[in-house]
Write a structure and sequence with these properties.
heterodimer, A: alpha/beta, 5 strands, B: mainly alpha, flat
């Protein structure tokens, strides 16, 4: 009994150390989305090809909505992987966030286009409805426009396998 | 001596150019930061608007409030808050609007819920545990003596 209590400060210290060590590896800049389970806002946006958005044709499928911009440097980092996904018949819809259509077109010409549609959100209104706070962000949209998941930052193969694939199979 | 003086004046004139440049750059930033909705409305000057902004977190620079942030996203949010105020929404409605989209993290003063109850009551809990321990040991020692 006496022996046990003497070690208490040491154990408390170890406990604190464990908490602080964990704190070092937390990523407070990665925020959970408040939009999971909600419906994608019902806004009609212009697209890069000059039409208006028609997401209803994906109403029965699961697809990716990628928030990107030509000014976003990290967006180029995920482009190769997005092209790979597009080649695997995964539906990708781009949300061009606070960008100029001309520059967006140029950017896609440089880095290739994995998107079936690119929606233009020049003022960022649609993105605000989604709680977007940067680019790139990737949303997984399920049937009936339901938001299943959100990833902030570059979409890597690791993230894809860990966070997206399990949710797509459901 | 005179050579030294000449050098000094050259140095001074460079300093002047540098300061002028600095002032120009800073005013440039300021001009850039002030968007149209901010410059021409009494609403923006109102204490109410400033209070709401001070209660909301900038998500890009997370330890800053919206009032003091000039991040592009913060400017967008300010504009939306301005529009919501203009449309007659209450403070709570505006905060709910943003929390619904960006999550409770945006509120500097989040509402109490089961999830963050420990955050609210934790200090009191640990303080009473500490007092309890002190009283327990003090009594034990008194009994031992």
């Amino acid at each position: 009994m006496k022996f046990g209590w003497r070690w208490m400060p040491f154990l408390c210290g170890l406990g604190l150390l464990a908490i602080f060590t964990r704190g070092l590896f937390l990523e407070p800049q990665v925020l959970p989305s408040a939009q999971i389970g909600q419906k994608l806002p019902n806004m009609i946006l212009p697209t890069l090809s000059g039409e208006s958005s028609h997401l209803e044709k994906y109403d029965q499928s699961t697809y990716l909505l990628t928030v990107w911009a030509s000014w976003c440097e990290a967006c180029a980092d995920e482009q190769a992987f997005l092209l790979k996904l597009a080649a695997q018949d995964i539906i990708l819809v781009g949300l061009n966030y606070k960008d100029q259509p001309k520059q967006a077109k140029q950017w896609l010409a440089t880095w290739k286009n994995p998107y079936q549609q690119v929606l233009l959100d020049q003022e960022g209104h649609f993105a605000m409805e989604l709680g977007v706070y940067g680019a790139p962000e990737t949303f997984l949209i399920g049937p009936h426009r339901q938001i299943l998941h959100r990833h902030t930052g570059v979409l890597t193969p690791q993230v894809w396998e860990k966070e997206f694939l399990p949710r797509m199979k459901q | 001596m005179s050579l030294f003086k000449v050098k000094l004046t050259i140095g001074e004139s460079w300093l002047r150019v540098f300061l002028l440049g600095l002032v120009l750059v800073m005013t440039g930033f300021k001009l850039h930061a002030t968007t149209s909705f901010e410059s021409n409305s009494a609403l923006v000057q109102s204490p109410r608007y400033q209070h709401i902004l001070a209660d909301l977190r900038c998500l890009v620079c997370q330890n800053q409030d919206l009032l003091n942030s000039q991040a592009p996203l913060a400017l967008d949010m300010k504009q939306r808050i301005y529009e919501l105020m203009r449309d007659g929404q209450s403070d709570q409605e505006i905060k709910d609007y943003l929390a619904h989209r960006y999550g409770e993290y945006i509120l500097f003063d989040p509402p109490m819920s089961f999830k963050n109850a420990l955050l609210w009551w934790g200090p009191a809990l640990f303080l009473s545990l500490g007092f309890g321990a002190v009283i327990f040991w003090a009594r034990r020692r008194r009994d031992l003596v």
